[in-house]
Design a protein that fits this description.
With 477 residues, the chain is α/β, with parallel strands linked by helices. It folds into two domains: 340 residues, Alpha-Beta Barrel (TIM Barrel), CATH 3.20.20; 107 residues, CBS-domain, CATH 3.10.580.10. It is 35% helix and 18% strand. It has 17 helices and 21 strands. It has an eight-stranded parallel beta barrel with strand order 4-5-12-13-14-15-16-17, surrounded by seven helices. A four-stranded mixed beta sheet has the order 6-7-8-9. Strands 18-19-20 form a three-stranded antiparallel beta sheet. Strand 6, helix 3 and strand 7 form a beta-alpha-beta unit. Helix 2 runs parallel beside helix 8 and helix 13 packs across helix 15. It is globular. Bound molecules: xanthosine-5'-monophosphate (XMP). The site of xanthosine-5'-monophosphate has 25 residues, from strand 17.
Length: 477
């Protein structure tokens, strides 16, 4: 019989503690590489699952130092809107602020404001000459939904404005002096050329770990497949200034993927491409050669995955990450360990195995920022978490005409489940980053690169695993 190699996952190993010079775990720096060119401040990426990442999750995670990858199970138009929502959530200067016509009725404006998710609008006609500002405060004094914008806005005569040269730093002083919330920037003809908001300043102070592009906007990724509308989708996402495209299919080591990479390279230009999912050194080598800017590693480890059961295929995640990253590092291509992370210690192990970041699905599902409604059953609250290859998602894809497959031909490789409602994602991220930093201190690693170098694993037995958790007591917190 041929030799069958052993493959391990996170629970099969522990990291050997090393002499540490740390005085506090805050000395650990969690900055890491998402792709060849993009750095993020914590090694956490939210999964492009439809129950995990839309703009709300992407905004929060980028503010906390990670990055969200938007799912693709929506129309291209909606996908573009989601990118724009993240890109507009904060910036140094909004170069293309939303405007509203002065003749519009309050009723229409309220719907518009809700759909774009901003707190106020500049008022102008098509010539974009500033006429006033409409803020949420103005709505409070409106007499009804049928009043016109021009009747309740703050007119330009009462506004403080800046000019095209006004800097973010100057704006800060203007906000402080005049106690205003929005500073429109106008040229000599009073044409709108930008907007600076006090919210943006507040965000910079409140979220010092946020990952930003050159204009101070939050970073965001979006996923595409390799069939149907994927090229058009990628093109529109790039136009909307998405920071990274993730080509995400269940079996990334496939001709379909190589073909897609060739075509997407032309379309995406400088926008970086993350590709996956894979689970072997060979796949890593060939995809690095094909021009991947990062690899997504994981076939079947996810909370809601049944790929291994349905197909008999996959590689336990620790081994998959070690194999793929062993090759990828020679190409300078970062690795995302995708799936199977259940606790902060698993993230430390994934990075110790060579990953640069981890992608989380189940752990971030069920939070206030994940898509979907909170359901109540008895005194407990839940949200849905489902696999991208589940029957429900197949149905969703069919509805938006993304795929022609008949539903009775679908063989699901993922399940739909409910997970307890967990509240805000911030608390989860704080716990995870605290755990990662502690793990770094046990290995005397001040950076992610050091953690990758310093990690030495030991294999443990079932008894060792049992010993590793709280045991022989009834935990109360
Ligand atoms: P966790 O463990 O973080 O894993 O929930 C999230 C990752 O699981 C993958 N994924 C799937 N895998 N069938 C699969 O075999 C599916 O339906 C499915 N949906 C998501 C994906 O890589 C995700 O990031």
């Amino acid at each position: 019989m041929k030799h069958i190699p052993l493959a391990l996952t996170y629970d099969d190993v522990l990291i050997i503690p090393k002499r540490s010079s740390f005085k506090s775990r805050s000395e650990a720096q969690t900055k890491t590489k998402l792709t060849k060119k993009i750095d993020i401040n914590i090694p956490i990426v939210s999964s492009n699952m439809d129950s995990v990442t839309e703009s709300k999750m992407a905004i929060k995670l980028a503010r906390l130092g990670g990055i969200g990858i938007l799912h693709r199970f929506m129309t291209i138009e909606d996908n573009v809107e989601e990118v724009k929502k993240v890109k507009r959530a904060q910036s140094y200067i909004i170069s293309d602020p939303y405007i509203i016509d002065p003749e519009k009725k309050i009723e229409e404006v309220k719907t518009f404001i809700q759909s774009v998710g901003v707190s106020g609008l500049l008022v102008a006609r098509e010539d974009r000459k500033l006429l006033g500002i409409l803020s949420s405060r103005d709505f409070m004094f409106a007499n009804g939904d049928y009043e016109k914008v021009s009747e309740i806005m703050t007119p330009k005569e009462k506004l403080i404005v800046g000019n095209p040269e006004t800097t973010f730093e100057e704006a800060k002083k203007i906000f402080a002096k005049h106690k205003i919330e929005k500073l429109p920037l106008v040229d000599d003809n009073y044409r709108i050329v930008g907007l600076i908001t006090s919210d943006d300043i507040r965000h910079l102070v409140k979220y010092p770990m946020a990952v930003n592009d050159k204009q101070g906007r939050l970073l965001v990724g979006a996923s595409v497949g390799v069939h149907g509308d994927y090229l058009e989708r990628a093109q529109e996402l790039v136009k909307a200034e998405v920071d990274v495209i993730v080509v995400d299919i269940a079996h990334g080591h496939s001709d379909l993927m190589f073909n897609a990479i060739c075509k997407l390279r032309d379309i995406c230009g400088q926008t970086e491409l993350i590709v996956g999912n894979i689970a072997t050194a060979k796949a890593a080598e060939e995809l690095c050669e094909a021009g991947a800017d990062a690899l997504k590693v994981g076939v079947g480890p996810g909370t809601i995955c049944i790929t291994r059961i349905v197909t008999g295929c996959g590689v336990p995640q620790l081994t998959a990450v070690m194999e793929a990253s062993g090759v990828a590092k020679h190409y300078g291509v970062p690795v995302i360990a995708d799936g199977g992370i259940q606790k902060s210690g698993d993230i430390v192990k994934a990075i110790g195995a060579g990953a640069d970041t981890v992608m989380l699905g189940g752990m971030l599902a069920g939070t206030s920022e994940s898509p979907g409604v909170v359901m109540t059953k008895g005194d407990k609250k839940f949200k849905v978490c489902r696999g991208s290859a589940s029957f429900t998602v197949a149905n969703r894809r069919k509805k938006i005409k993304q795929e022609g497959k008949k539903l009775n031909e679908v063989v699901p490789e993922g399940v739909e489940s409910i997970v307890p409602y967990k509240g805000g994602v911030k608390d989860i991220i704080n716990q995870l980053t605290g755990g990662i930093k502690s793990g770094m201190s046990y290995t005397n690693s001040h950076s992610i690169a050091e953690l990758q170098r310093n990690t030495e694993f030991v294999r443990i037995s079932g008894a060792g695993q049992k010993e590793s958790g709280a045991h022989d007591v009834k935990a109360i917190t």
